[in-house]
Amino acid sequence: MILIFGGTTEGRKAAEVLEEAGSPYFYSTKTGEQDIVLHHGTIISGALDAIAMKAFCREQGILLVVDAAHPFASQLHETIAHVCSDLQLPVVRYERIYPPRDPSIIWIDDYSEVGSVLPSFGGAGGGLRLLATTGVQSIGKLKWLEEKGVKVIYRILNRKSSIQLAHQQGATDEQLCFYEDRHRSTAEGEVNALPDAEAILLKESGLSGGFVEKEEAAKKKGMQIIALKRPQLFNLSTLKPFNFSPFHLTTVNGPYGLRRAVEKLLPEFFPLHSGLTTGTCATAATVAAAIRLCKNEMPSEVPVLLPNGETIMVPVGYSNNQQSMVNGQWSMKVGYAYCIKESGDDPDVTNGIEVRASVEPSEEFQIHGGEGVGTFTLPGFDFPPGEPAINKAPREMIRKNLEQFSMVNGIPSAPEQREEWSIVNGQWSITISVPGGAEIARRTFNPRLGIEGGISIIGVSGIVKPFSEEAFIDSIRKCMEVAKASGAERVVINSGFKSEQFLKAFYPTLPAQAFVQYGNYIGETLRMAHELSVRRVTLGVMLGKAVKLAQGHLDTHSRKTVMDKDFISQLLSEAGCSVSIDDITLARELWEKIPPQKLSDFAHSIIRHCLDCCKPLLPEGELTILLLDDNGNIYDLKT
User: 443, exposed or middle or buried, with CB in 10 Å at 0-12, 13-18, 19+?
Assistant: First the structure.
C-alpha cells in the first residue's frame, strides 16, 4: 500500500500516476479541500503528527510514502522523515521544477529579512504597499511590517477556511485579495489579477506554483520583487535530536520518474512496468560520453531531461579508452558510452540492445548514424533521404541535454584541466550506433517504410508505457471511468502524447482527467464511452490513423492494417483533389501534396467517413471528430 501526501499540483499528478495501476492507495491532505476525483485511491484529511502518522502506516500496512506536499511544508517533510526513518519506509519525494534564480530579484532566506530590503526601494513607513502572495499561513509573520507603516495586501485562496484563518491572524477584509483560477495560467492574466503595489513578496514555488507567471506580471507592473527561497527539503540539523537515521529517499520531478521509482521500490504495485525509448537511451549514452570527456568521470547513471521538462536518472556504461599509434606517436581516444535499452513489459524486439554514443567537439552541432542505425531512403520523415533514421524528438532531446556542457579552445592536454574546458559555441559531433541493429531491423516495419541498414531512434515522450492488449484496454477503461467521474462536460479521446497536447490547447478549460488516450483502440474506447453513458465525446485523430479509421478499421495498429492507397485515392476524388500519391510512404505526406485550398475539403471527406464508422458505437451520445495535422492545426466539419 502507498501513502501520498498531496494537496498540491504534484499530489494530483502523483494520484494520476498511481491510478494507472488499478491498485489501492491513500491520498492525504491537511484540509481535504482539494478538488480531486480518485477511482482507486482513498482520501484522508486532517494534519498528522508523528505519532498519528506512524500509527496509520502500521495499521494500513504502508510500504512506500510519496511526499508530494508543498515545498514550504517544512514541518510535514520533517515528520515524514522521522516516521519513515523509524519504520524504515522508502520515500519518493515528488519535487517541483524550479527555473534558475533571476539576479534582478531580491532573494531572502526568512520573513525577518523583508524589512531589511524594503529601504532599497523607497523605505518602510512611507505608505509603501507590499503585496504578499506567500499564503495565509505567512500573515502572522508579516504583521510587524504594518507597525512600521507598510501597507500589506495579502493574496490568498478564496476558501472559507483560508479567509477565517486570515482573520484570526489579524488581517482585515480590505487587506485581502484572492487567487482566481482563470488568472493563474498566463502572465497576462496575472497582470490583470495583481492589485497595485510598489513591491511583491513571492515564494520560490516553482513552475507548477506559477512563479514565472507571477514574476513576469510583477515586472510588467513595475514592482520590486522579493522572493523567499525554498527551504531545504530535510533539514538534518533539526532531525539529529530525534536520533534520525538514514532512510531510502528517491527524488523525482515528474510523472514518469515517479512511476519508475514506484516500479523499482514496490514492483508489485504496477502489473506492467514501463521502459525507455531508443531516443532516451541514445540521449543517456550521449550525456555519459560528454561527462566522461569533460570531467573525466564515469557515473553509473546520468540525468536525462525528457520532453515534458522532467528529469529521470538512466543507468549507463562505458567502453575502455583506446590507444593507437598516429604518426609515430601514441594517441589516446576516449571510448564510447552506452545504455542498455529496457522495454519494461512492452513486447519490443529492441529490448536489451546496446545503444552507444561517442562525442567530440565540433564547429557545428551534428548527429551521425553509426553501425546499426538505419538511413531514411524515402521522403515523408522528419529528415530527408540520406539522413540517419534518428527522429526529430530524440535529436532535440540530445541537443537540450548537451546544453549543460560548454568548452573553449578544444581539449586540454592534462586531465586536471578538464574543469576549465570549453567547446567553441557549445557545439558537438555525436555518433549513435547500435551493434546488431541491422539484423534487428529486419524484424520491424522499417524495411517497408524505407528505413534501411538498421533500426530507427525514436520516441516522443522518452518513456515506453507497457503494452499488453488486455492490460492496455483495461487501463483505457480505468481512465474513462475516471473521466466520467470527474464530471467534465466532455471526454476527449486521442492517440497519444502529441495529439493530446494539441487537444488540451483546443479545450483549455477541461480538466486533465477528461483526456483519455486510446492508442490504437478507437472502437474499444468508444464502446466504453457508450457503456459508461458518456454523453459528449471528442475523437482527436491524426492523419495516419484517420485514413485507416475512415476505411472502417477500428483498431489502427500497423500489425492489423496498413495504409490503403486505393482508398486514399477515393477520398481525394471525393474532395475534388487531383494528386498523385504513388510515391508516398506515410499518410502525413498528403498534407504537403494537397493544395492548401483543398485541405478543408479533404479533411471533411475523411471526417465524414470516420463518423459513419464510429457513430454507431455511441448511439446515444454526441460525437465530434477533429482531424489534426503535425503542426497542431485542427479540422472539423465546420472548418
Answer: exposed
